[in-house]
Each structure stands twice: as C-alpha cells, then as structure tokens.
Amino acid sequence: MPEGDVIWSTARRLHEALAGQVLIRSDFRVPKFATVDLREQLVTEVVSRGKHLLIRTGDGLTVHTHLKMEGFWRVRAVRPGAHSAESAKLRLLLVNAQWEAAGYSLGVTEVIRTADEESVVGHLGPDLLGPDWDPALAVSRLARDPDQPIGTALLDQRNLAGLGNVYVSELLFLRGLDPARPVGSIKDLRAVVDLGHRLLDANKARPGHVTTGDTRRGMENWVYGRGGRPCRRCGTRIKKGEQGPAGEERLRFWCPNCQL
Ligand SMILES: [Zn+2]
Q: Which residues contact 241 (CB under 8 A, 6 or more apart)?
C-alpha cells in the first residue's frame, strides 16, 4: 500500500504534465467507464487527498483514482510515431499534445462530477500533506476510540489521511510506543501526529521513505522491513507481526525494548 508522500509526488507530476492543457485522447480500460471520452477537455488541476488522486477538468468532471495495493502512474513525452503505453495492467490513458499519462493496476478508476468529490473523499480525516492540514482535528479523531491500538488507529484514513505501514512503524519507533498500546493510554498524541506530518513532508519530494536521516540503501529505516535483525539503537531483535481487524491485518515492525 503506497504511502501518502508517493501519492503527493504522483499528483504533482501529473499536474505538471496535464494541468492547463487540453486532452487530445483519453482511454478508460475499465468496463463501467469504457465509453467516457475526455477529448477536448481542459485539465485544470491534479490534487491528492490522502491516498486518493483527483484529476479535474474545466467541464466540471473529476477523474478519481486510487492506487490501492499495486497501482502506479507513468508519465512520458509523446513522440510522433511511437506507440502508447500498452499493457494488460493499463487502466487509464490521458494524452495531451506533449505528455502521455498512463495509470496501471489502479484499484479505483472512475469519473465523477467535481461537485460530488465529497462522496469519495469526504470520509477522510485531515490530510497530512494537504493545504488545510489540521493536527488538532487529527488528534481528536484518533481519541474517539481510546481502546483501539495506536498502530491500527494511525492507519485508519478516517482519522488522518496519508500514513501507511512504513510510516506507522517508523513513527511509533521514534516515539517509543508499542503499536499495540491503546490510543487512550498515550499522553502526547499531538507529538505522534506532528511527527507523522514531518516525516511525510520531508519525503514528499524525493523517492523512498527515509526516517533515519540516512539515505543509503538499507539504512533508510529504523524498524520497517527489519524483522529479526538488531535494533539500530539498542541491538535487540526487531519483532515482526500482524495487527488490525480480521481480513485487514497489516505488518508491524517494532523493537520490544525501545517501544513500550
Ligand atoms: Zn531498540
């Protein structure tokens, strides 16, 4: 599951390629929208909301996509005579005179009226990378269910939008909190939320999810992906386990000595 910083940088790349230009071709490879044609529509902007991408047109339409587990976008320059990006994984192609944006394996691909965007993103908590990021609201949303484990509550996009497994594991290590700790037992939720914002913000314009300050390969994280290996701080073996509601379990990594 991609982290919010990946969605943010994807939205920026798509905005740079598409915004302010008229589409000369669109191709939806999902049955429900196969007949939609956005030719001659002006793309006005591309924005991210948590992990959702919204591509808006001057005619009041929004192409709503979500990467879910395996989705990704590729943007490439249109070259005369070159074939466009063909693949069984292709879900959507948007082309203007200069650029071709291709969405692959997208978990959601749909066209809605821009006026109805609330129906697809209205449930989200404050967006960690949004222009209207509201840490106090995120804290109050988290605090609604004091018995919930903090590791699960931070992943719930209705509380705050943008964190995935990597940042939740890293954030809880940096705050010294066991992912199983009930939300209600944590005194300084604001510090947790603020650190989540800083980590995403620091990584949004670069590849990777660096939380240690060390960008060398294999050195980027404290605990994520390091199950069974020694903690970088105390040497204790990092634990790995699953957490979350049945059917939605997510991987957790934590140091049983540093995180209580
Ligand atoms: Zn440790």
A: 251, 252
